[in-house]
UniProtKB/TrEMBL annotation:
SUPFAM superfamilies: alpha/beta-Hydrolases. GO terms for cellular component: membrane. This is Alpha/beta hydrolase. It comes from Leuconostoc pseudomesenteroides. Keywords: Hydrolase. Residues 26-149 form the AB hydrolase-1 domain.
Length: 244
């Protein structure tokens, strides 16, 4: 493993870890809100055996800082593009989890020519796509961290992270239908994201398929990361069919 730190134009430092052979297909791993590249730790051996893996600490997460007042989706997308250009690769595969899946969609819409495949684990286009308990918990957390932010560096950072979840994605059906990238949508049987929402996304995207992980919820990548990696790796590597 090699660890790199890339400084953005606003002075923000983005840290990412590099695994595997850089002559192989490059896959970018995007973690969820409040997490870090460590989220993928137990998945990495499976991916790195066949791919050039880049695990990113998103802006304001893990070892990466944030020089802006808030963490904005546009900045997250720009960070990913700067990393791609720094790697000198024309196309990447992207695996995103939860918020990371949402950011992956936004990046692919803006830079479709630079994405060859997408694996989206529990994405959602709007708050209607998830069960209310998730948004209720996030709303409470935002209020609590805002109140504590003046007195706690951790609360301030967590409040900045939660801001990403409250920012509208503004992804249209037309944008999704124009996205011809092969896409695997993954969701747990008991996920916080609604199954009908994932199926709706798959119906709009012309080259999308859905994988339902039986017996699992939203946090399958925590509870059974190695099994998750084994299931999605064939699609990441370039096979037309994942092990569904």
């Amino acid at each position: 493993m090699k660890t790199h730190a890339l400084t953005m134009s606003d002075g923000t430092k983005i840290v990412y870890d590099e695994y595997g052979n850089d002559t192989l297909t490059t896959v970018l791993l995007l973690h969820g809100n409040g997490s870090s590249a460590r989220h993928f730790k137990r998945q990495l051996p499976t991916y790195a055996a066949h791919l050039h893996v880049i695990a990113i600490d998103s802006r304001g997460h893990g070892r990466s800082n944030n020089r802006q007042t808030d963490i904005k989706i546009t900045d997250l997308i720009s960070d990913i593009e700067q990393i791609r250009m720094t790697l000198h690769v024309d196309q990447v595969v992207i695996l995103g989890y939860s918020d990371g899946a949402n950011i992956a969609m936004k990046y692919a819409i803006k830079y479709p020519q630079h994405v060859s495949r997408l694996v989206l684990n529990a994405p959602n286009l709007t708050s209607e796509g998830v069960y209310k308990i998730l948004w209720w918990g996030d709303n409470v957390a935002q209020v609590a961290t805002a109140a504590m932010a003046p007195f706690s560096a951790y609360a301030k950072r967590r409040h900045e992270q939660l801001h990403v979840m409250s920012e509208p994605l503004n992804i249209t059906c037309q944008q999704l239908s124009d996205l011809t990238i092969p896409t695997l949508l993954v969701i747990g049987e008991f996920d916080l994201v609604k199954r009908r929402h994932i199926e709706h996304i798959a119906e709009i995207m012309p080259h999308a398929q859905v994988m339902i992980l039986k017996g699992h919820g939203h946090f399958v990548t925590y509870t059974n990361p190695r099994k998750f990696a084994q299931l999605v790796a064939p699609f990441l590597i370039g096979g037309n069919d994942a092990k569904i």
